[in-house]
Specification:
The structure is a single chain. By secondary structure, this protein is of the alpha/beta class. Helix content is about 35%, strand content about 15%. The strands form two sheets. Strands 3-4-2-5-6-1-7 form a seven-stranded parallel beta sheet, sandwiched between helices. The chain has a seven-stranded parallel beta sheet with strand order 10-11-9-12-13-8-14, with helices on both faces. It is globular and about 75 Å long.
Length: about 450
């Protein structure tokens, strides 16, 4: 089966899929959907941008029709866990589109915003609940939602869940689910820790592997650009002079780095916005909407957005900083070359990041091509120029602290002052240390005190 029409889906679902512009299934969809419709637990390993959301949402929408209208207050008939707010929003948007001709109650739960609207949406019960682990646990502890009625459980981006430290939260949530349920486990990579988690929550699962673990999209042309750290901003400005780059995502390693790059681009007249963990959910969503609508040309993000951005037409992914976790590289460049299109990945690499580059190449099992036809190539710069800080760049390097005066063992402490003459006798040149044997005698100790005239 290669087309959605070949599936035994209900007419309202097929109508919504066709209106979304989809006709032919991706490999993950053609292999996963029939297995889910058969009622089997599933482990699906596929790279980002392959249509995993439809692979689990379409069969769940189909299966929930059988019990339509049976939801109970403060319960959910199906639960989809996502690691980030952006990914949860993306999943919710897609599911609402696929189920728009059905009378389903869909709820979205995530942190960073007021919980009052979320509590209200859960009060009458919901058919499909999309949630991030932290906020879901908070609402469970407050008694606003119970998971004892869940029939279908989906863990999306499981490897990212573990990377973000959600393993304990996931285990707490799974412990409250009924044993009789269907579980779907989706991940882009399958390290041993993720495989152990899958084995603990699934029962005789069917496994679907679309691509080897940690492989990058075949349609992404990957390049590495060697450049000194203090010239990265100039190289970025040089690259973005190319007007054919309509829409690009720029990844940095830190939140402050994202803010600095976005500010620099704005100064150069290149429209941009930054999203990271310190931004409020409303600000992050506003930036995503501006980027999706074409109001801004570039989006500067940390890895918090690597798996939560599904925007059409992203031609370039630029790694301003190479990630220190190799798997993050795979998910970063997966933001381009989606839905069968091609894309370009450009990674800036200075001397300190060469170890990160080697780790990435080992993970993806291929050498990344070197692009050296830029004016800031590291081999064409003299050592003196490399060490010289750029005048218009902020020097963020940390200077070593000057040692504190720790007493007699400190060299500066033992040196004679400028007012004293240096003596060849070490006993005279050394300052006396504090102690009872060095204390000056009190000349007034044995003197008789004169009586106070007022007390006579």
């Amino acid at each position: 089966m290669t087309k959605f029409a070949d599936l035994d889906l209900r007419a309202p679902i097929l109508r919504a899929v066709e209106e979304s512009g989809y006709e032919t299934m991706t490999p993950i969809q053609s292999k996963a959907i029939p297995k889910v419709l058969e009622g089997k637990d599933l482990i699906a390993v596929a790279q980002t941008g392959t249509g995993k959301t439809a692979a689990f949402s379409l069969p769940i929408i189909q299966l929930l029709v059988n019990g339509e209208g049976k939801r109970k207050p403060k319960t959910a008939r199906s639960l989809i866990l996502a690691p980030t707010r952006e990914l949860a929003l993306q999943i919710e948007e897609n599911i609402r589109g696929y189920a728009k001709y059905l009378h389903y109650k869909i709820a979205l739960v995530f942190g960073g915003v007021s919980q009052k609207p979320q509590v209200k949406s859960l009060s009458q019960g919901t058919d499909i609940l999309i949630a991030t682990p932290g906020r879901l646990l908070d609402l469970m502890d407050q008694g606003h939602v119970r998971l004892n009625e869940v029939e279908y459980f989906v863990l999306d981006e499981a490897d990212r869940m573990l990377d973000m430290g959600f393993i304990r939260d996931i285990k707490k949530i799974v412990a409250t689910l009924p044993k009789k349920r269907q579980t779907l486990f989706f991940s882009a990579t399958m390290p041993k820790t993720v495989e152990g988690l899958a084995n603990s929550i699934l029962t005789n699962p069917h496994r679907v592997d679309i691509a080897p673990a940690a492989t990058t999209a075949d349609k992404v042309d990957q390049y590495v650009l060697f450049v000194p750290k203090n010239l990265k901003n100039k190289l970025l400005a040089h690259i973005l002079k190319d007007e054919t780059i309509d829409r690009a995502i720029i990844f940095t390693r830190t939140k402050h780095g994202a803010n600095r790059v976005s500010k620099k681009l704005d100064q150069l007249g290149i429209t941009s916005a930054a999203i990271h963990g310190n931004k409020s959910q409303n600000a992050r969503q506003a930036a995503l909407n501006q980027f999706r609508d074409g109001e801004i040309r570039t989006l500067v993000a940390t890895d918090v957005a690597a798996r939560g951005i599904d925007v059409d037409g992203i031609s370039h992914v630029i790694n301003f900083d190479l990630p220190n976790e190799e798997e993050s590289y795979v998910h970063r460049i997966g933001r381009t070359a989606r839905a069968g299109k091609t894309g370009i990945s450009l990674s800036f690499c200075d001397h300190e990041e060469r170890a990160y580059l080697k780790g990435i190449e080992r993970l993806i099992r291929q050498k990344i091509k070197i692009m050296d036809n830029h004016p800031f190539h590291i081999e064409g710069i003299q050592p003196a120029d490399y060490a010289k800080a750029d005048d218009d760049e902020e020097d963020t390097t940390r200077r070593p602290r000057r040692p504190r005066n720790r007493g007699r063992n400190n060299k500066r402490h033992n040196q004679p002052s400028n007012k004293q003459e240096k003596s060849t006798n070490p006993a005279k040149s050394r300052r006396p240390t504090k102690g009872p044997h060095t204390a000056k005698p009190n000349k007034n100790k044995n003197k008789k005190r004169r009586p106070n005239p007022k007390q006579r």
